[in-house]
Model the fold of this input.
Amino acid sequence: MGKHLRLVNDLNDDRGTTLVFTDGERDYLLIYTRKGYLRGGEMHTGAQYNSVLNGLIKWDVPGSTTILSSATTHVTPKEVPHIMESLTDSLMVEWRENPLENPVNYYEPYRSLVRKRIMEKKS
Done:
């Protein structure tokens, strides 16, 4: 018998929805983000992989900006701070080389932008 995915978390906020699945060895995130919102502002102990299923996403790391569109997969190397902006409503899948960190290793220069955007959108 093969492995089965199990839903382990369902997170909803003003930005959209994140569903977290596991197969017991690897975690997978299905992330829906509303246009104009930011996510991320963190860095991880292993590489992070993101595949865009629908929409346009601006992906920033220090010194580089990439626009990701449908059917694009992007790799962020370990320990590289990153932040994304959803240029349209977007849907992507994310997985990492290592399990999800708890607590999250936030990169404050980017994470403060995520919090600021949420507050701006609320007003």
